[in-house]
Amino acid sequence: MTLLIAGGSGFLGTALAKAFRAAGHRVMILTRRPQREGDVLWSTKPTDTTWRHALERSDAVINLAGASIAGARWTDERKREIRASRMAPTVALVSAIAAATRPPAVFISSSAVGFYGVRGDEVITEETAAGNDFLASLCRDWETRALEASSRSRTVLLRSGVVLAREGGALPQLALPFRLFAGGPVGTGQQYLSWISLADWIGIVRWTLTRNHVSGPLNLTAPAPVTNAEFASTIGRVLGRPSFVPTPAFAVRFALGELADALILGGQRVVPTRATALGYEFKHETLEAALREIYGK
Question: pTM, whole model, 2 decimals?
Answer without folding.
Answer: 0.95
